[in-house]
Specification:
- Four copies of one chain form a homotetramer.
- Chain A has 442 residues and is of the alpha+beta class.
- Chain A has three domains: 152 residues, Malonyl-CoA decarboxylase, oligemerization domain (Butyryl-CoA Dehydrogenase, subunit A, domain 3), CATH 1.20.140; 133 residues, Aminopeptidase (3-Layer(aba) Sandwich), CATH 3.40.630; 144 residues, Aminopeptidase (3-Layer(aba) Sandwich).
- In chain A, helix 11 links the parallel strand 4 and strand 5.
- Chains A and D meet through helix 9 and helix 10 of A and helix 9 and helix 10 of D.
């Protein structure tokens, strides 16, 4: 996580409950002062004091602080109701202004004032990270969380984000963070990273003026002659870099968020499109912008799914039959459970029937399940961005993780600029747009 | 005004009403698309289109567009009322989230999405400038204006502003803007500016990442041995720069806003305090941070005020008497109306009685009227920032403008860090904190 | 002149002869120490001390110092002769190394060591400026001057110079120096400069890492549709900038040296070619690179030249006749000397005969006299760079200075990349390459 | 080695002798053209062509090229002798100028002109690297080499070098070069480097404008409470960084040259002093600037030295005896030759007599042999810089290399600013200044 300017938390011993209570009280007192008219003239100074106190509280104390935000800094129900009634009776400008003022939770203004001091925004992002983790055990904090998201969404707006290329000229401090945050295909040290920053591999990150030096999200791209079907060649440390003349396809092969405290703030969609625009300008010969993506939820889904479900849930007979065949084959061959079996699969030699069955099921999973809650998150992301389900690739990822999650299958999503808006619209209404070959498969 | 990236408005002929209607329709259609789920995946591209259309409309069309924002993008009264009733019945997190969503005018989200595209924030600032001008004739747009202010206040938050020193190494493009925007003591060309950027004069400006190269506000400071009593020596082009050892007082002698579209967004208060902090670090020997300010409303106020008013409004007898004496003197001497007289005043020779009367009246005006609506704006600004009314200076500004506005009187406001919060609080409650000598005067 | 880091000369009163002698002694003592083996380990510190002492001496003392360099830091004649004899007897590597060491004046190493300290190079440039001025009265310092030139030529080598575009985004400090140093067509304040930095006017300067912020030389270029015939339109403050599509010709209309201490170091030739290369890359449509230049020596030459000389010096009869005609006409019309007459000339109305005579004489002057010592310096510069004498323009410069120096005539020199080397070679051998129309003229 | 801009050498197949001859011919023809008057106007273009041809020749061709520089671009013996005779007869300015011109080898001007083109200086540095390697088999090229050194020494003058701190914010491209070039205590990957760039370890490098991104030399410094006696704690990857308050001593523990082509150009002396100055400013509490250095020549010297030599060469009897005792002990214990024995030494347990003998011999070696040709290069460097021989440390470096080269002994050299000049002077005259404890030891 990023450092909080001027705030040190390192050596503080765990406070006693009594100390904790006093600390919370100090934060609260400062917050009230900051929000009062009295605090207006001096708000940066007061905000700095509150931030310093908050920094000492981390992390249990932060959850308590959020509890106070919920209890003491929410809109007054009676005042809102009154304002809503007046606005309903006569929707005038002054009634609307009064309503808006009454309905906005005062904690929003509190957070805005905290963000005025150096390190304020960074601390708010850090706070939200803790809050998100706490939500499971304290669901009543959902409205507080919604306020954090609302403000961060406004501040980390696409227009405020700065895209920068990450390459071998970047600082070691930044590159170290890239290695640390890569979440899809782990970077195995500096030599691995170095290959991923050669001229035929690109890496772009979003930064925000309030978090200097901190990447928010980054994407890795391979510039290749054809839409790639397997990940290994793209991340092969030994591969010789290709020349510019061979760049026909830009394949996004990894995208990683770096700030858990910004979960839910739309960043990836904007980054992919800004990178595509940038690369198109740099290399006008680029014809195709696609991904090479994992299907992290596929194996789990297949294992959880009984034969009855497969049939009952309206799967076409041909697919249902193949699901059965796939399982029979898998079970028959090894007499073990599917997960173990998959780990031992030798994909090149896989007999055609098993292979076809699994590809069809993967296609079904992506085309039908990704619109449902709990569907594959990577599919949801790219299809939600307006990409098209373009191609399934057998034996695309033979790493342990790839076999375990997707039985080694990978997928290309295609970003066709002129289709994006329409595809997204159809996806929102429950339809996944696929290439013809996938439609035929199902 | 700043330039709008990618948008050109120069050569467009005035459109016919029919064309205008079609243009508005296009903006509206784009806005709806941008705000719809459909637009989500492609929002930067759609926002760019809407911005391009909006740029063609300027300026009458912008007011019409604001009218549409008022009519079509306001919260639904029935839905808000329903949400407020549920929240009042049971103030749960989900009810609050629903309420907040229902109460926020949809145009806020529209503006947030517009700001995602390059030039979006700049256009929103430009739009608000036109909107502010239009409010007089179209007061019903007040709620739309409140939404603009709300968003700009969040984005042009003190934490997001970058303070930079402006000096002779700054680009000519920036310095030209400083000359243009200086609103208090006009800068008479490059030689004048050059003197104001010597080591014993400082200039600092706020910038925002979304308006690169555009100063938002700037302040000019003189580093001097004593609290200054007159403006002429501070802006004398020929004055030899003083050495660092003589810097005891930092006197803010001019502060100018550059962006009318950001009126009402708190910038000056933060700038003054950040500059004071910066200078204190650079020159630890600085003891005093004060202003040398005009009193732009004084002469007007005195002219408008009848003797009856002076007495009736509770002025102490001594002051009322002197107001009378002052007028009598003034009237007797020239037999002309006050305004003409003042223009001809020879301040050094002013006889003591007139001088004392006018200083007392100025003190009264600042100490009592500045807390009222319509009071002196400069006094309101500094006192509201928590400064103290420190000293009145006879013959402080003998320029035509200085004589006309303040009868040549200037005032020092004192920023004492440890008092700022308390002074502000007392000002909010109707009390002006003054130095003892001013209290005695009254 | 540029500032000398850490050295202040401002308030030092003129020293007495005795003080001066002591100062010189200190500089000398430091110089010997710096040059000794003893000084090697500590040379930056010692060099800094010597520089500080030198800075106090300026300027008469600098000339004395140069006198000491001449007397005490020259090669030892006996030692050189001995080394030369041995080398002549056997031209081995060791004999050559010994010879080179013996023949190099020790002051060269002294200056190299002085340049190791901060501000050293700047002071050496400043010293040479004074030395150049002193040469007239102290011609015996020519060898010292040659050493300065040798070292500065090596350090201010084209490969070490950084070319930067000067535009409205440049710092005011730099632009002020541009205004100050413009030597051909004076810049009349900031508004004039601003026009010369619009997109269809360019300015480029050379900088050196050792003189940060100090332009060494700069050139101004107009991007225009045709080879220009007159200066006024190029420097017209009111002229509307042209669009890129009209850029066909890059016309260098002014080139100014900023550092008198670098006289004789080749800068202009490199700058023009680097700028041409740069512009050709930026605007591939550019077809022609030429100048629009004054002929500063023409009027003087014509006045000094008697009719006998014109005839005797081998001028073709046609030209000689016209010289006569020109003078007769001029004399007849005004009965005054030529200089006065020229100041009053009304070029548009000039009758064709006079005009033709003067153009022919200017062509002759440029084509024949510029190869001689004392010929027109601007012609020498461009022709020596390998440019071609392309076109003469009547009434090209109607300013006072233009009329006085060149009778208003201007000239275009053409830089044709493929000809440059050959043209230069012919110029060195006494031939000026001209366009056919000029050859015909003569 | 650094890259040569615009020049690629990668895929060129080995040329036939005939091709090689033609290539050399082209380089030579270009060089003559570049040096001729004809080339003057176009020298950057011609220099670029010659550089491109030269780049194809590398490396055997480069040696041939140097042979041509020796044969064809040397001063003319007859002309020099004539000039020397005239100067000896009358040492006037014009005679001196003529002499200097005649004595300077024309290849110096050729190299200066080559350096005008982009990449010229880089190629000259690369050429010299090859030339230095070739000198052993072609000693007649020494005079050519001297010319290279002369020019590079002038260009890579301390005043032209830029010192920059290298830290974790530096680019990965630079850090990779630091890892590669570290020559004293090898850097074992990025984690090792990271520790050496923490706040209590510093790294500074010199750069030159003509070799952007290329470190010329760098030094590593430890900020510690006491003069260090062993290297292991300084380069321990796990060591916790110390706080600023503990910084009392700056210990230079490694200095590495990166450019073999700059051998003999004084860089290290200047770097150490500039770093010391910089650190003293940053941490005024620093009291001591010293090194912790290996003695790379000690073991070799001891092995090569017979007992007779030890006695004959005037070693004090006490030392001679100990040398004998040391050998006897060493021989007796292991019955093997010294080198093998030393590799197995267990320094902590070494009995006192052996230890004392070896320390005394090391002290003798440093104090007496380092002034002789072939003496310890590290001692020569620091003592020549004016440092003092301060302390010998038993078991200072237990690495394989440390045991093999110095029998594990390390030495501190002390840089005391006020002594540097005097120490250097005494060193030049054959005396090594030592701390009293070392003097006593001998």
């Amino acid at each position: 996580m990023f450092s909080l300017p001027r705030l040190s938390r390192s050596a503080t011993p765990t406070p006693t409950p009594r100390e904790r209570a006093r600390q919370i009280e100090r934060v609260l007192e400062g917050s009230r002062r900051l929000l009062s008219e009295r605090g207006e003239a001096n708000s940066v100074a007061i905000a700095s004091e509150v931030l310093a106190e908050l920094a000492k509280l981390h992390p249990e104390g932060w959850v308590e602080f959020c509890g106070v935000l919920d209890a003491d800094f929410a809109p007054d129900p009676g005042r809102v109701l009154h304002a809503a009634e007046r606005y309903a009776a006569e929707p005038s400008a002054s009634h609307l202004i009064a309503l808006t003022a009454a309905a906005e939770p005062p904690r929003q203004e509190l957070l805005r004032r905290l963000s005025r001091a150096p390190g304020g925004t960074a601390l708010i992002v850090a706070l939200r990270r803790v809050l998100l983790d706490a939500l499971r055990s304290r669901p009543e904090l959902a409205a507080v969380e919604a306020d954090f998201l609302h403000l961060l969404g406004s501040w980390f707006n696409a227009g405020f984000l700065q895209m920068e290329q990450v390459d071998w000229r970047s600082s070691a401090a930044l590159l170290e963070k890239i290695i640390h945050h890569e979440a899809v295909h782990a970077i195995d040290g500096w030599a691995d990273l170095r290959r991923r920053l050669q001229p035929d591999r690109r890496c772009f990150a979003f930064f925000h003026p309030q978090l200097p030096g901190e990447p928010l999200i980054f994407v890795e791209v391979a510039l290749v002659p054809e839409m790639p079907a397997a990940i290994a060649p793209l991340i092969d440390k030994q591969a010789a870099p290709r020349g510019e003349r061979e760049f026909k396809v830009a394949a996004f092969y990894s995208i990683s968020n770096c700030q858990p405290g910004l979960r839910g703030v739309s960043l990836g969609n904007f980054l992919i499109k800004r990178v595509a625009e940038h690369l198109q300008r740099e290399f006008p010969q680029l014809r195709t912008f696609c991904t090479l993506s994992p299907i992290p939820g596929f194996a789990d889904w297949l294992l959880r799914r009984s034969q009855q479900q497969v049939e009952r849930d309206g799967l076409p007979p041909r697919v249902a039959e193949r699901a059965h065949a796939a399982r029979a084959l898998l079970a028959g061959r090894h007499g073990a459970d599917l997960a173990a079996l998959v780990s031992g699969i030798a994909p090149e030699a896989a007999d055609a029937e098993l292979r076809d069955a699994l590809l069809t099921l993967a296609g079904f999973y992506l085309a039908h399940e990704s619109v449902l809650p709990g569907g594959d998150p990577v599919a949801k992301f790219h299809l939600g961005n307006g990409a098209r389900l373009e191609r399934l690739n057998w034996a695309g990822d033979l790493s342990r993780k790839g076999l375990k999650q997707s039985l080694g299958i990978m997928v290309n999503y295609l970003y066709a600029l002129e289709e994006v808006e329409d595809n997204h619209d159809r996806f929102v209404h429950g339809e996944v747009v696929s290439a013809r070959r996938i439609a035929r498969l199902l």
